[in-house]
Amino acid sequence: MHSIVTRFAPSPTGLLHLGHAYAARIAHDRARAAQGRFLLRIENIDATRGRAEYEAAILEDLAWLGIGWDGPVRRQSEHLAAYAGVLEALRARGLLYPCFCTRAQIAREVVRSGIAPHGPDGLIYPGTCARLPPEIAVARVAAGAAHCWRLRVRAARRETGPLAYEEEGTGEVACDPLAFGDVVLARKDCPGSYHLCVTHDDLAQGVTLVTRGAELRAATDIHRLLQALMGWPAPRYAHHPLLTDAAGEKLSKRSGALSLRQLRESGVSAAEVLERLDERTTG
Ligand code: GLU
Questions:
Q1: Using CA positions, which residue lies closest to atom 3 of ligand 1?
Q2: Are residues 71 and 95 in the same domain?
Q3: Is 50 touching ligand 1 by the criterion CB < 6 Å?
Q4: Catalytic annotation present for 253
Q5: Tens digit of pLDDT for each residue in 59-106?
Q6: Which domain, by its residues, includes 139?
Q7: Could you tell me if 126 and 182 are in contact, meaning their C-beta atoms sit under 8 angstroms apart?
């Protein structure tokens, strides 16, 4: 049997809080318990929100907690050519189209059509640019018009047929990628979106068990679709519940969760942080 490879994949958009420590520890402990490998990946494709000092803080906070990773840290910003390659392969198969819509235009189109279907990622794209004649789309791209690339989800799903993934403790979970509508696979400023980069990197790093918060469970339906389109083997998944505060709110910077750094500076020890995690999960 192959040994387990897990990963922790934070985005460097802020300081880590208890919720991150919880996610990191699950991935770490699962790998260590099986003499497997635990990898660290910095998901920093969002140049507008990611900051180098947050990346440095992530490494420092994990080291403080005693959560050590194997091998070099992978940074998504260093692999843009690989994402562009995947994109090109899908584009060559006619599965992508450029979308020139701004958020405001999408909102106007939704109002005009009188229907506003929502998927797991929010409003479903109404498909305006999917209907553009190809020669017009090509000319606009050539002229330098700002655009992202969307997946023709329906056509993609027709190619792959029904899909499922393996969730630990649950078994096979059927996927419903159509619920997302035509997702963005490359953003205006980057040849990859979260969905594309995360799926590509889990394969590139040989991850066999993806542990992550339950808020990303629905996204797995899209990730599975991309894996099937590209002929990539699927890892197993273990989505874990999110830590909540006393009011039942998901821990986040916005909900006022203290960062690990604040806890440390206020004199809390790493052992106490780990103890708090145990209390949260068993209590
Ligand atoms: N980078 C994502 C985040 O910080 C997590 C990606 C994943 O685990 O799939 O929310």
A1: 10
A2: no
A3: no
A4: yes
A5: 999 999 999 999 999 999 999 999 999 999 999 999 999 999 999 999
A6: 79-201
A7: no
